[in-house]
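Reviewers of the previous submission asked for a worked example of the structure-prediction workflow described in the proposal, so we include one complete record here. The input consisted solely of the amino acid sequence. No template or homolog information was supplied to the procedure at any stage.
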Amino acid sequence: MFFDRPESGELAVLVHLELSAIDSPDDPREFEELALSAGADPVAFIFGQRATPDPKTFVGRGKLEEIQETVTKHGAELVIFDHTLSPSQERNIERELKCRVLDRTGLILDIFAQRARTHEGKLQVELAQLRHMSTRLVRGWTHLERQKGGIGLRGPGETQLETDRRLLRARIDSIEKRLDKVRRQREQGRRGRSRAEVATVSLVGYTNAGKSTLFNRITSSDVYVQDQLFATLDPTMRRVELPNVGAMVLADTVGFVSHLPHRLVEAFRATLEEAANASLLLHVVDAAAENRLHLIEEVQTVLEEIGAADLPQLLVYNKLDLLADAEPRIDRDDQGVPRAVWLSAVTGAGCDLLVEAIAERIGEQMVSGALVIPPQHARLRAQLFAGNAVQNESYRDNGDIELQVLLPRAELQRLMAPFREVGNPPQWLPEKPEEEPRPEDWELD
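From that input alone, the workflow returned the following structure tokens.
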């Protein structure tokens, strides 16, 4: 950080407190997995209970002495707390323990810094780190709060702390402008896919639920996969052809975690907007997890933060190979609409069912039938062929062209809108009467 600290190391003592004020305490096993994912070597795990955090040291005097003894015994160089510490608490604990202290937010930021590979990902991580560090400047620069003096040492009339605050704000502003450009570029891509009527399906879910493995299985890609938290940080998108539906774009996104730091959500908003603007969310769940219902709730909380909670969702219960006597299947609601798919991304069992369910869910907006086109409107025929919407073509005795088509309802309305007022317009003969677009719907939105 921005103050003198002991040399950091990998030997770590983990600290987890059960607070009475919290109704649903965190899983300490997940905290240990986070530490391992960051590269730490835990030598001890200290537990405790408190009604409320101590305002000075979070854990209180007695527990702090226990931590000090453990650090001395094992020669640990790092203490990690499974909580969010205030800057003053972090500094006070470091002063007492004489070693580096990291809270849950700092731990997740460190993991993200290790995983970032693309330029965009590195910018987002740096932005989150700078926002986190900005809250710790006051405590860090206490030895430089006075203005410099003496020959050759006189500054611009501001303290060292003020200088660093100004430089930090300038760097944050610069990164935010560059990420705004990335956000605009992504928005242009989404508008292009919308005009082409290509559905976007985003994989979301708790970290280490198997999203990237499933992504590779469906798209035949080689996205980085590892049995660790936050193995995927940078988003990946691939085009997939669905039977009887057409093309879709599948997006693999960063996994969620309990108490995901808000500054991370803000920094990764450009990436998470891919999920917020998807046509369908594939909510991947670790079916073998004992607390899978709690994990589903945590993911819903993050989806609400990014404005994606109301989007259509299809639950995907993954890791079926870890359950005894479990078979791949599709769960449907009372109307027969797929609501959940059980599969194993590792073995591939049930992945064909997932593709089938995705096609059904996306196909809810598809219409099929015959379109009778008079010869003078042959331009419409060319547009339908260009959009890969024609399944069969035949000609009537009077010269009319009859096309069997399958395409999104919105695309059909867009194509037929120019013919609303013309004489002898094309006639739509749907397979299902309820699919027929009304004349007032033919106009573009």
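The first helix runs from residue 28 to 37. We consider this example representative of the routine output the project will generate in years two and three.
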